[in-house]
Amino acid sequence: MRFPRMALVKQSSDIPVIEDVVTVVRQEIAALNLKLPGQARIAIAVGSRGISNHALVVKTIADELKALGTKPFIVPAMGSHGSATAEGQIMVLETLGITEKNMGVPICSSMEVVQLGTTATGIPVLIDKIAVESDGIVLVHRVKAHTDFDGAIESGMMKLITIGLGNHQGAQMAHRFAVQRGFNQVIPVVARFVLQKAPVLFGLGLVENFYHKTAIIKAAKPDQLEETEKELLREAKKMMARIPFVTLDVVIVQEIGKKISGTGMDTNVVGRMYNVAEPEAEFPKYTRIVALDLAEDTYGNAVGIGMADLTTRRLVDKIDYKATAINCLAGSVPEKGRVPITMESDKDAITAALMLCGPVTQENARMVWIKNTLELEKFYISEALLPEIRGNPNIEVIAGLAMLPFAADGNLSWKLPAVSMP
């Protein structure tokens, strides 16, 4: 098997960006006109997702709450992440730059939950004990398309309530019910129950643009939170980054990991959901997916590896099977933890992928090489795809054509050359 020549392309989009994040966060909080008793203990619920300006936003919230005379602290709201341990979740926050020293407030981490009650549809509602016993809860999370289902409410503040603040037990409970009912009948239902019963002060929703930069920041009190999130999700879907091809033979993903997506690689990008509770999307349709490596700061969590058809020895050797199993089982998605056929090098894996696409030749192979499913401004496309981007004002060729730059060991390193591939 010979490999197609590749060109480096750049996608562009004229979409908004917030330059002064601190000022906007302050303005949004001020607009809520909060009246809080002095020395009130306020829990800031922080998830595990990699979010642009995440630490800056959390610190600004903490500073504003202190200015109001309260005593804020941070609680991890990340379900089963961090190997479902209090210490592990503190470590996850640390990778996001969220530490007690940086934030200027304590971090109170515990996996203990209390049951607030049961929804009218019979779902037990579990929530972090420390958070619910505080004088108020602040939610801060990015609003985006979910990787497991479509709906008016997907991934955002409502999910942070249901799964994040539910800790391991709550996340597991929600996912178990979703297997039969679907997430649309679980996440909003549980979140509404919590908003009625728990001392939620407000939520701060963040939307990112195509370039993974903060585009929208919006605060909402509990009675407006759901409708606010619906509107933010509509805006988020307009801005989300995608691979601009409906069909491909091979997608090479340089790295997967939790900081990239909750499912390791975004299902909306790779076109695979692999969740028994939800139907698969018809498009995009990518015949073979190759996952080459685990991103840094994943602590061995390889959730999402099951969506790949082939992987490499270097990725598999980095897997923490316990952490991966905990995450997949809590999410009721054992499919996403399955280890695919493992090849000794990137070159071997890509060769096998091309051979498994039918009668594909070097000249007609439709192949894309991306760094990950989050950073899609620049990536490589095969020669056969060049005619399809001609005339597209949002995509330009910035380097090419050249062969894949395999090292002596047969592996690839992600590089973005100034002029051409090495």
Automatic annotation (TrEMBL):
Pfam families (alphabetical): Lar_N
Organism: Sporomusa sphaeroides DSM 2875
Gene3D superfamilies (UniProt xref): 3.40.50.11440
Superkingdom field: Bacteria
InterPro entries cross-referenced by the UniProt entry: LarA-like_N (IPR018657)
Domain (LarA-like N-terminal) ranges: 48-179
Name this protein carries in UniProt: LarA-like N-terminal domain-containing protein
